[in-house]
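Saturday, quiet lab. Running sequence design on the structure tokens for the scaffold JK sent over.
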């Protein structure tokens, strides 16, 4: 997707649990939209761990990890976590902020291999069924240097005004034609 000339990528992750039963598993979601395309330069993945539920079932703490598995950095990263009905956001790790039933985390850059950790705490009302959390992550690809542009190793060492193919003296090499 391109917005205002900037390439933008995104991924979605989701975790759902029944309120009274938790399976001991770690869930990772990979963006299906990239499955048949060339892998993006930055590849951000959101992973939720098993949530912590208080003994009295009054709150849940959701732990998450956002990792850049790509070969290049991501800029202007926005991770929006959504909690299901029946949960009220009570707190979140920095730099995240609660915005209604969403928690929004903003990062200037996430370099290749970097991981950001966080948590969201929700209060529960009288509910039954499944509690959910999901995330959508969007970012811009970090600019990369193109060969020959801003690359000092690609600079032509000939003095100004010397025709292409001429040496530093300004003379072209002698060519014998037979």
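Result came back. Writing it out in full:
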């Amino acid at each position: 997707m391109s917005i205002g000339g900037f390439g933008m990528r995104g991924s979605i992750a989701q975790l759902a649990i029944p309120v009274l039963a938790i399976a001991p598993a770690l869930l990772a979601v990979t963006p299906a939209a990239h499955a048949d395309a060339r892998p993006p330069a930055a590849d951000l993945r959101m992973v939720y761990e098993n949530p912590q539920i208080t003994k009295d079932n009054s709150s849940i703490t959701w732990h998450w990890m956002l990792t850049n598995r790509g070969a290049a950095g991501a800029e202007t990263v926005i991770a929006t976590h959504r909690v299901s009905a029946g949960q009220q956001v009570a707190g979140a790790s920095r730099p995240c902020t609660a915005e209604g039933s969403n928690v929004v985390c903003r990062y200037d850059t996430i370099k290749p291999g970097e991981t950001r950790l966080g948590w969201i705490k929700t209060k529960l009302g009288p509910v039954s069924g499944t509690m959910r959390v999901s995330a959508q992550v969007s970012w811009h690809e970090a600019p990369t240097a193109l060969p020959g542009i801003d690359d000092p190793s690609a600079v032509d060492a000939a003095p100004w005004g010397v025709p292409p193919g001429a040496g530093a003296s300004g003379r072209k090499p002698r060519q014998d034609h037979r």
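Notes for JK: The chain has one domain: 8-30+40-141. The CA atoms of residues 25 and 42 lie 26 Å apart. Ask whether to fix the surface positions before the next round.
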